[in-house]
Amino acid sequence: MTLSRRGLFAGGAGVGGAVLLGVPGVASAAPELWAQPGSLGAPPVSGLHLQFGADASKQAVVSWHTTTAVARPRVLLGSPDGGFGQVVQAGTTTYRDAKSGTEVRVHHARLDNLRPGTDYVYAAVHDGAAPELGTLRTAPRGRAAFRFTSFGDQGTPTLGKLSNGTYVNDNLGSPFGGDVTAAVEGAAPLFHLVNGDLCYANLSTDRIRTWSDWFSTNSRSARHRPWMPAAGNHENELGNGPIGYGAYQTYFSVPDSGSDAETRGLWYSFTAGSVRVISLNNDDVALQDGGNSYVHGYSGGAQQRWLEAELKSARSNPDIDWIVVCMHQVVISTVDKFNGADLGIRESWVPLFDRYGVDLVVCGHEHHYERSHPIRGQQPNDTRTPIPADTKTDVIDTTRGTVHMVIGGGGTSVPSNALFFSPAKCRVITAVGPTDPNTGKKAPVYVLEDAPWSAFRDRDHAYGFAAFDVDPGHPGGDTTIDVTYYAVTGPYGATTAVDRFRLTRPRRS
Fold first, then answer.
1. Which residue intervals define the domain Purple acid phosphatase N-terminal in the entry (predicted)?
2. What is the spatial distance between Cα 413 and Cα 411, in angstroms, rounded to a whole number?
3. CA distance 169 to 147
4. Could you give the CA distance from residue 181 to residue 175 in angstroms, rounded to a whole number?
5. CA nearest to 361, candidates 369, 72, 155, 353
6. What is the mean pLDDT of residues 299-324?
């Protein structure tokens, strides 16, 4: 499929004039006109990206942002063969960055009643702006094969701070933040999971520019396939919203979980084929003080109650085979002098993962790649050490336990793959102390444990992503997910397959 602005938006080119949409196959009650950018111009369509709705076979959202008001933000939707035949108006949400005072407007066009497993083309536009094009493929309805991908901890490859006359990166980003995006797009997943710490705007001099740079880097993929995020500790920005996530909550329009306005969008779920994906914000239960403000317990247990109800619903649904959890902080880690595992998550959520048979947990936070054996149950010690249910590393029956993957090499400039304990050990945060006046953070209390749950660790590569190929199998047999971790080793998304294994479980129907 080859589309161009010239071919899709034919008409007069007078400055400040209007162009009539002239595409064969358009069915519209009235001709769609749009104003060409005038001499003063209008802000461009920036940061174009997609999200799935709760039912990924029929719901999606097209989003973009501006820092000034615009008229008639909208999306033209159509098919690759028939052109644009539908206009969907976008709603606008805003936040004002507490550091700069800049107000950001994010325009969300909600697409519903889409056809399962179908390719669409769309154009996002507002009056006076040039349209930006994208494509979307909806998820299959029911059991079908598809691929999804995952990484966390990206930052941006751009330079945003002037230091002694030289521009530097001030959000823990590196050039690999762009290379990993190219690699993901090359893998062409149905959707991509971003396991928290997206752009580290809370560390940067200009938070607005950092978010804009992150979307500019990733829109080359996120305009073609939904990038579904989890909020990490570095999405917590001082002064932005009641608990610090106002920017994140505004930029992304994720499925509604029924939470209140303060916590809207911080946890959610969606279904693609026979996979239920559950995205969590574990700053709520993690003990570590890692954001701009300490928000442990912010939901008052609401997220935990929602999580249990969601897991119970998914596991009792005969159309759902797989439960995948995406979150940021980790249950397992075998590196020294980094963040470590968190007892708060082990105590609050791991028993729920065990009770309802979660198959897979993908995380970031630690800036390397490793995975666990399937774990089920915990030792009765101070760290609640997970118990491996099996030690096979090639084919893993997830009915026996949950596999945890740390995929934190999305591009950050401070990788942790050189810090692995040998033999494998784990530092677990079991408490926090008073605020350290030198750091402004509550000091973590660590306890060291053995790591019998450790299955695979990549010492040699700092950056990469994981790809998951879902095979629905046949009635009466097994369904599988083939997992490959790809190290990203250079520009243009050059990759090397480092780890391969298969998850298997009986198909529900």
1. 47-128
2. 6
3. 33
4. 11
5. 353
6. 98
pTM above 0.90, yes or no: yes
Give the residue-averaged pLDDT of 33-43: 59
Q: What gap in Å lies between CA 147 and CA 203, rounded to an integer? A: 33
Q: Helices 176-187 and 207-222 sit at what angle, rounded to 10 degrees?
A: 30
Segments in 203-349 forming alpha helices (H): 207-222, 246-251, 302-316, 343-348
Are 490 and 479 in contact, with CB atoms under 8 Å apart? no
Instruction: Lay out the sheet containing 322-326: strands in order across.
Output: 268-272, 275-279, 322-326, 360-363, 403-407, 369-372, 454-457
Task: Answer for the pair 176, 411: CB distance below 8 angstroms, yes or no.
Answer: yes
For the beta sheet containing 442-450, the strands, ordered from the edge strand earlier in sequence to the opposite edge, are 341-342, 425-435, 442-450
Residue with tokens 């009986």: 506
Token pair belonging to 83:
């052109």
Q: Look up tokens 């106002």; give the residue.
A: 246
Q: Point out which residues pair with 465 in neighbouring strands.
A: 486
User: Within 10 A of 474 (CB to CB), how many other CB atoms are there?
Assistant: 10
The percent of residues above 70 in pLDDT, for the chain, comes to: 92
Q: Sort strands 360-363 and 322-326 into parallel, antiparallel or unpaired.
A: parallel
The pair of three-digit structure tokens given for residue 68, joined into one six-digit string? 């000034």
**Collapsed DSSP state (helix, strand, coil) of residue 29:** coil
Q: How far apart are the first and last CA of the chain?
A: 37
- Range(s) for CATH 2.60.40.380 in the chain? 5-137
| CATH no. of 5-137 | 2.60.40.380
3-class state of residue 502 by DSSP: strand
Report the 3 state secondary structure along 77-118.
EEECCCEEEEEEECEEEEEECCCCCCEEEEEEEEECCCCCCC
Per-residue pLDDT reduced to its tens digit, 421-450: 999 999 999 999 999 998 899 999 999 999
Contact 62, 135 (CB under 8 A): no
Q: What is the largest CA-CA distance in the chain?
A: 74
Q: Looking at domain 146-506, does it have CATH number 3.60.21.10?
A: yes
- Cβ atoms within 10 Å, residue 382: 12
Alpha helices in 223-295 (DSSP H): 246-251
Task: Give the residue among 111, 74, 105, 104 at the shortest CA–CA distance from 92.
Answer: 105
Domain with CATH 3.60.21.10 in the chain: 146-506
